[in-house]
Write a structure and sequence with these properties.
The complex is a heterodimer of chains A (873) and B (247). Chain A is of the alpha+beta class. Chain B starts with 6 loop residues before the first strand and ends in a 22-residue tail after the last strand. Helices cover 31% and strands 26% of the residues of chain B. In chain B, the strands form two sheets. A six-stranded mixed beta sheet of chain B has the order 6-7-8-3-9-10. A four-stranded antiparallel beta sheet of chain B has the order 2-1-4-5, covered by helices on one side. The interface between A and B is medium-sized, with 33 and 37 residues.
């Protein structure tokens, strides 16, 4: 049997097993292992985390996907309609597809309505839900029999859940009855937490949740009623994506198809950014791993040159050597990839396990997947494995192909002449084509991972140019350090002389040190910038309550109350409700049909609803003027400022005259400015803000946002019982949940960061190791000439520390540029400068590179001179 | 040209030059040398005289700029790298000044290596046998770094003889060793050489080592000079066609 194995294979295995045991392959194996492990862990982990977070955040819309429509979907196609009139989405179709994909479904019908209890009545938001609502998140209720909160779905037929404040407003107790439309329903529980409670401050009021099958009895839905229909879907990540593909293309203008990320909520934005960050960090991790492999494979081939020369001197044909080393490398890659997969799997499991506790039950189900085992391991799917193996192979092959080709081409003459520089007389084209292989592989890797060719190309070209610039800067800086060196002690002098003498080789090292430090700094800086921004969005005293419908006569009492109890409150905003009826001379139609929209009719599409209008003397915080000018305090001219996206939607320009219907009156004002509004701020925000004169004579109510500490909640509730017309909107639960999500994202980000840092450190270690070998002979000579260990140690320490510091400095500068570009173009967040991280870059670069250099050479310096000399021969 | 069947190595007007900073530097010029089967020939000369360059051309490790070199009748100067490799595999053994053992193979595996290259099925037993002959049976599984310089060179000698080469090239085989070890290594080398009846071409600047060869030639500034005085104890008439060659 053994004779079947050719000699080259036997020798190859022999080399591999000996070198493995002797630790000769440790660094290169570590590089590949880390590359594979980090890709595996990152793609497994961040994909899972993303899914889990989205699932958890999806509780804000109570589903994974929602189809919202102002009309109910027809059950099936009506054959009587002409073809172009056929609705593309029918309930039959959605049912069939979602059953096929094993999706859960629920339905909501939402409308505003008056409800009555005895002689009391109240405008409420009526939410009729089907059996399985909510599909994501939890509906928490408290019923009369138990004080504890329970998870609930749709109420039983004939019963409703209502928000607690409605009990007061309607003056009833649990078990009491209310009239909704033509039916009488019993209130069985208080809805404490409604997962998809709106983010909007101006929702029509407190919610009542009823069973959808009771809706017909109420006879509330009549032709022309303003009703919103929501079809909710949830299920496995892949199935939902498939479903999304099917449905999204068929959605018409009167419908909206959305998930949590397409919602313009602070949460969606946080999630999108976190996702981008995780992918970017993973990309950087891959680049670092590739750099580590490239360095280590170069070192590997250098170490094997004399062996190849001996083989050749003994008459081994080039094909024999090629086969021998290909197999050697293949064994090495296979081994490393396997270890990497195992390690990556463990890392991903540890990472997921560590944050598991922070995720709610549904998200945990997503994490575990349907194939989880009894001991609670997370199933990661085949994709991370595939990605990791491809990464490992690409790293191991593409980044080693040139060094290996050089190795195989080693001339046998070096057995007699000693190592010589590799023949530099290769043609330019040859050089370029050799360099193109790893670059192409890197591009392939980046594209595979980011699924964005343009982004990958940009990263690569930018990286390439940056490396060239770094290379040149490095050489200049190192010659400069020589001048400093002459003014210092012997060890420093020796170190600086070495730096200068090895300027070219050191520039290569410098590039890899710089890349590693830069990428690390980038990941750290972006992390802290993201976290800061999230924290800023939800500062400690983020308003957790909104007061709406504050009548003019209560303003004074409210002010007093706020002052008395030291409550943090926003300004009071006056609110007048009105409808936009005309833009210039164009009348706005109430509702636009398709034909009108596409046809020649002059009517313009309006909002179809009343707007909350306010007036201000000064521009509110979180608003900025994008066109035109804000009015001066002295100005008496009637004018209006409009929010940018609405202006765009209604094609309103500066100077246009808008006509509003306010009760029985009409007001006509010119648009003098267009504003951008930060809708993410937990402040009252408005589409239309008027100059003070315009609305002054209209009856107003006021709105304010407050931050009420936990212990003062009862106070404000008690205060408000005296003013039953004031509505209190409690968004505390929502804010808490938002904080929780951001917390989890931060943890995920920290975990990814740790992996990237490991990859970065490995690059540094691999590079120090590689460059130390070049120094071995020199250390041997100096040692023989009587140089003291201390001098050698210090010179190595200084040389590497100087290299690290220079790398840190260049890395900081280029990090700053890159982060600026990323913040402004990719993350679309405010740009910032990070000079404190420059210090971190320089100091950590100097100390880490210096320490690794010192530790690695410690062993060398402590070897007896004879051994040292023999090693280097 | 037909070669005398007894001649194993022959050069004619062999020259090697390199261009350095646009200048032509002549390393070797007009070397004519014939070595007979079974000869032991020492090439001596000071550092930089071109000994090693000559050895690299004789063994086909490098190509001459001019002239011809035949090994076992094969025109090395006309062969490409692969063909020269084949000639080396079939006929040549090497001993290097730096020993050049493969660091990640054991002593035994290092010795087996050329035999395995030649597809010798009894590589292991022959290697063990040779290991015993160089007195290192105990060290079979030691790696080069665990062996002394002398021991490493003994392994290298065993490695050189395992394929029973027709000709053995030795480049300063004792150059890295102390005097006592050198003598011991030289004894071993000549002993095995005699036993295997191998032709030996030895490059050295150690005259005492050169004296142990049947013949010696001296390199001076890239040429073979008329110096034969160190040749003693010659058992046969020198066949060296030595002459001062004019460029």
């Amino acid at each position: 049997m053994i004779k079947l194995i050719p000699n080259w294979a036997k020798q190859s295995f022999r080399l591999f097993s000996h070198e493995l045991k002797r630790g000769d392959l440790t660094i290169i194996i570590l590089a590949i292992v880390l590359g594979v492990a980090s890709v595996f862990a990152l793609s497994g982990f961040s994909e899972k985390i993303k899914q889990a977070l989205i699932t958890q955040s999806s509780s804000f819309i109570a589903a994974d996907r929602v189809l919202q429509s102002s009309r109910p979907l027809p059950h099936h196609h009506l054959n009587s309609l002409p073809n172009e009139e056929k609705p593309t989405l029918t309930r039959q179709y959605l049912n069939q597809q979602s059953t096929k994909l094993n999706l859960e479904q629920a339905q909501q019908v939402i409308m505003s309505s008056m409800v009555f209890s005895g002689d009391k009545m109240q405008l409420v938001e009526l939410v009729a839900v089907s059996k399985h609502y909510p599909l994501r998140g939890e509906l928490l209720i408290t019923n009369a029999t138990s004080q504890n909160q329970q998870i609930a779905h749709a109420p039983e037929l004939g019963t409703v859940f209502m928000e607690r404040k409605l009990l007061t407003l309607l003056g009833i107790k649990l078990g009491g009855s209310i009239e909704i439309g033509n039916s009488t329903l019993r209130v069985t529980a208080v809805a404490d937490q409604i997962p998809d409670a709106s983010f909007s401050v101006f929702t029509s009021g407190a919610k009542i949740i009823m069973n959808i099958n009771d809706l017909a009895k109420t006879q509330l839905v009549q032709p022309g009623s303003r009703v919103t229909y929501k079809y909710l879907f949830a299920g496995d990540h892949n199935a939902i994506n498939l479903f999304d593909d099917l449905v999204s293309s068929k959605v018409n203008d009167a419908q909206r198809w959305y998930d949590i990320q397409s919602n313009q909520t602070p949460l969606a934005k946080a999630l999108n950014r976190a996702e981008k960050y995780l992918s970017l960090a993973s990309l950087l991790g891959i680049i670092l791993a590739a750099v580590a492999v490239a360095i280590a494979s170069r070192r590997f081939t250098q170490k094997h040159r004399s062996s190849v020369a001996v083989y050749k001197a003994m008459g081994a044909p080039i094909t024999y050597i090629r086969k021998l080393y290909s197999l050697h490398w293949a064994s090495l890659s296979l081994f490393s990839i396997s270890v990497g997969l195992i390690l990556g799997y463990v890392l991903a499991q540890v990472g997921l396990f560590a944050i598991k506790g922070y995720l709610p039950v549904q998200a945990q189900e997503v994490l575990s997947g349907s194939f989880s085992t009894d001991i609670g391991l997370f199933s990661l799917g085949y994709q991370p494995v595939l990605m990791a193996v491809v990464t490992g192979l690409l790293c191991a092959l593409a980044f080693s192909v040139v060094p290996l080709a050089n190795l195989v081409a080693t001339a046998p003459i070096i057995t007699l002449r000693g190592p010589q520089p590799i023949d530099e007389q290769v043609s330019f084209i040859n050089k370029v084509s050799k360099g193109a292989i790893p670059l192409f592989a890197l591009l392939l890797l980046l594209t595979l991972f980011s699924k964005d060719l343009i982004l990958s190309l940009r990263l690569l070209v930018a990286g390439f140019i940056a490396s060239l610039v770094l290379f040149s800067i490095g050489q200049v800086l190192m010659s400069f350090s020589r001048t400093i060196g002459t003014k210092s002690g012997a060890a420093w002098l020796l170190a600086m002389a070495n730096l200068k003498r090895r300027a070219k080789g050191n520039s290569v090292q410098l590039v890899s040190f710089t890349i590693a430090i830069k990428l690390l700094l980038m990941v750290v800086v972006l992390k802290s910038a993201l976290l800061n921004e999230w924290q800023e969005q939800l500062p400690l005293q983020t308003p957790n309550f909104f007061l709406v419908n504050i009548a003019q006569e209560y303003v004074e009492q409210l002010d007093k109350f706020i002052e008395e109890h030291h409550i943090v409150a926003s300004d009071l905003y006056a609110v007048v409700r009105g409808r936009l009826t005309a833009i210039n001379s164009d009348k706005i139609t109430k509702k636009v049909t398709k034909e009108q929209n596409n046809g020649t009719d002059n009517g313009r599409q309006g909002l179809g609803r009343e707007l909350n209008l306010t007036w201000r003397t000064s521009l509110p915080k979180e608003n900025s003027i994008s066109q035109g000018q804000w009015w001066s305090k002295e100005s008496t001219m009637a004018q209006v400022s409009i929010e940018e996206s609405l202006a765009k939607r209604l094609q309103i320009n500066l100077g246009d005259n808008l006509t509003f219907q306010l009760g029985s009156n009409q007001v006509k004002v010119p648009v003098t400015s267009i504003r951008t509004v930060n809708w993410q701020s937990m402040q009252p925000n408005f589409y239309m803000i008027f100059s003070p004169e315009v609305l002054a004579d209209f009856p107003v109510s006021y709105i304010a946002s407050l931050y009420v500490e936990q212990d003062k909640k009862l106070l404000i509730q008690r205060f408000l019982t005296h003013y039953p017309t004031i509505s209190l909107i409690d968004i505390d639960a929502m804010i808490t949940q938002l904080r929780k999500v951001i917390d989890q994202v931060s943890k995920a980000v920290a975990f990814v960061l740790a992996l990237v840092v490991m990859a970065g450190c490995l690059v540094l270690v691999a590079q120090v190791q590689a460059s130390l070998e070049e120094r071995e002979r020199e250390i041997a000579i100096l040692r023989t000439l009587g140089a003291k260990g201390r001098l050698l140690r210090n010179s190595v320490l200084f040389e590497f520390a100087a290299l690290g510091a220079i790398a840190g400095l260049i890395a900081s500068v280029s990090m700053e540029l890159t982060v600026y570009l990323l913040q402004s173009s990719v993350f679309k967040m405010q740009t910032s400068f990070h000079f404190d991280f420059w210090v971190l870059g320089i100091v950590s670069g100097a100390s880490f590179v210096g320490m690794v250099g010192l530790l690695s050479c410690w062993r060398l310096i402590n070897l007896p001179s004879v051994t040292l000399i023999r090693r280097t021969m | 040209m037909t070669l005398n069947s007894e001649i194993i190595l022959k050069t004619q007007s062999l020259a090697k030059s390199v261009s350095l900073e646009n200048k032509q530097l002549n390393l070797l010029q007009g070397i004519d040398l014939s070595v007979y089967q079974g000869d032991t020939v020492a090439i001596v000369g000071s550092s930089g005289s071109g000994k090693t360059t000559l050895l690299s051309l004789l063994a086909g490790l490098d190509l001459p700029s001019q002239g011809e070199v035949y090994l076992k009748g094969k025109p090395l100067h006309q062969l490409n790298e692969e063909e020269r490799s084949q000639v080396r595999a079939d006929h040549v053994g090497f001993i290097f000044q730096q020993f050049l053992l493969v660091n990640s193979l054991t002593a035994l595996e290092n010795i087996m290596l050329p035999a395995e290259l030649a597809n010798n099925v009894s590589a292991k037993s022959e290697a063990l046998n040779l290991l015993a002959q160089v007195g290192l049976s105990e060290r079979a599984n030691h790696f080069p770094a665990q062996l002394s310089g002398g021991e490493q060179q003994r392994v290298a000698i065993a490695r050189a003889f395992i394929t029973k080469p027709d000709i053995l090239f030795a480049d300063e085989p004792t150059g890295n060793l102390d005097i006592n070890t050198s003598i011991h290594i030289a004894d071993l080398l000549f002993d095995l050489n005699r036993r295997f009846n191998t032709t030996l071409v030895l490059v050295t600047h150690d005259l005492s080592l050169a004296k142990r060869c049947q013949r010696s030639v001296e390199m001076k500034e890239g040429r073979l000079s008329d110096n034969l005085t160190i040749s003693q104890n010659n058992e046969q008439e020198t066949s060296l066609t030595h002459r001062s060659v004019t460029a």
